[in-house]
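Progress note, project year one: complex with 3'-phosphate-adenosine-5'-diphosphate.
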Amino acid sequence: METSKIPPIKEEDLQELLLTLPSEKNLDGTNSLYLYQGAWMSAYVLRAVYSFQRHFIAQDTDIIVGSMPKSGTTWLKALAFSVAKRHIYGPKESPLLTTTPHELVRFIETDLYSKDQQPNLEQLPPPRIFGCHSHYANLPESIRISKCKVVYICRNPLDQIVSFFQFAHRFKQDGTPFLSLDECCDNICRGVHSQGPFWDNVLGYWKASLERPDKVLFLKYEDLKEDIVSNLKKLAEFLEIPFTDKEEKEGVIEEISRLCSFDNLRNLEVNKNGVRPSGAPNSAFFRKGEVGDWANYLSPSMAENFMNIVKEKLAGSGLTFKTSQ
Ligand code: PAP
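Model obtained:
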């Protein structure tokens, strides 16, 4: 077991905790979101985060793929898996051809700590790779103090939010009405959305990447779209498994980028069919994969309003976003 010394939280204690937290509606009109340790999340996620924080013990060889939801997590999971495990599986026999990126790299909070408060993760072969949407400040201490690596992907907040909204529309099953676009914009501008505020989520990792560049690698979705090859090299170097000259000559980097490309992954049978345990169809993780799609959904004034708030929150950090191709 990872650590069994701390007893799991009792359901009644969790319910009591929820009662003490500020709560608001999620963008899809369902489940209240709770503000827990500076991050908005559903009760379901909170339960998992609570256990993850208390029970997870990082190993020095772990790789944590961090992100705000809908920022390119699926893509980065596929890339990190392909780079880190390339000595076991070459691109032609990659498990990505038959297994979804989310199955190969599971979300540490919701996939692993939601059902079982103390899952046995020790049997997983190194390097263990996990996905994670938590804020940097809320990661378990052992992630920050071990030698494990954290790779974070961020996306411009306009595309991120539109992607989230579209995703939620694609698999919503109950009859609760969605918040209107105006209500959504109001919530987002206040930072009230899953794993928001946006600025706190990205800034935590951004600052950590500046302070500890060997520990946290900060990538941008738009940069990956523009130049996947140099970003793959950066990723491999950061993970301390740089591509060799031989690999470069043999075109391994290009093969990985092709394997993990939007068009390739989206058209694989495994990603066209089936559903995630959350009920989301696997296909919903591959929608358009473009930079600037927000312009088809948000009015210029909505976008300007939100971006002004984001810029104000990020002022002085040096972090900027590209919002169009
Ligand atoms: P998650 O955080 O719930 O796992 P995530 O993968 O971050 O979701 O977001 C999905 C977005 O990434 C979708 O963007 P869109 O709605 O604007 O289209 C999806 O299309 C995009 N995406 C998924 N795979 C890739 C890929 N291989 N390359 C580029 N974009 C991708």
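The two ends are 47 Å apart (CA to CA).
The longest helix spans residues 157-171.
No further modelling is planned for this target in the current period.
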